[in-house]
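USER: For my understanding, would you kindly supply a protein sequence with its structure tokens?

ASSISTANT:
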Amino acid sequence: MWKKNDLLRHASAFVTLSDKQAEMFIQYMDLLLEWNKKMNLTTITQPEQILAKHFVDSLSLFRFITTDKPYRIVDAGTGAGFPGVPLAIAAPHFGVTLMDSLGKRLKFLDEVAYRLGLTNTNRVHARMEDAGRNARYREAFDIAVARGVARMSVLSEYCLPLVKPGGYFYALKGDNAAEETQSAHEIIKILGGHATRVEPIIIEDEYSGEPLRHTIVTIQKIMPTPESYPRRGKVIERHISK
């Protein structure tokens, strides 16, 4: 079982946490494991894996996101709150919207926000393609983040409409991120974006003995998204599969 100092040490590669913030992460883990017994939130249930694969993995976004501005951030398809909740804990002046299509997950995140005292988050029950067409959320955020298995072409169409011109979309992806990003070049351009960076991230994992590897794709929003986007989910998948 990892301790508070383990989180502080591993997170320090990306961001500095206080003792209080580290304690909030421990409380978050306890809630995750408790709720996971009654609903499917995560397949990662070993505390050491939660530390590396959920917490530090999410905090690696601070390699690219500075902590000196009160960014409005949307975590699209947040699931159990990754990476949005770790960002909100580490940067209390961020305003983080946790968006998901499954109401049960949002009930869990309501409890997390209440128990941790996270006043800088709000939860939104919405499908991504609907949120991108809603005037309340469309091009309303400085930053969108997503950590999911969907291809870059799909993630981009869901996330870029939420980002204001001049903002950024950061996608946490696997080893094939560069290939996916290249394949999505045309739709990213149509959506008003420009892929500026595809960078591998290595997170030390002293418990397993093997480092965790992932890739963060940076897309800058340089133009407004055309009104016809995002398309409906089935339409997106149909066009992507061709």
Notes: The chain is about 40% helix and 25% strand. The chain has one domain: 4-240.
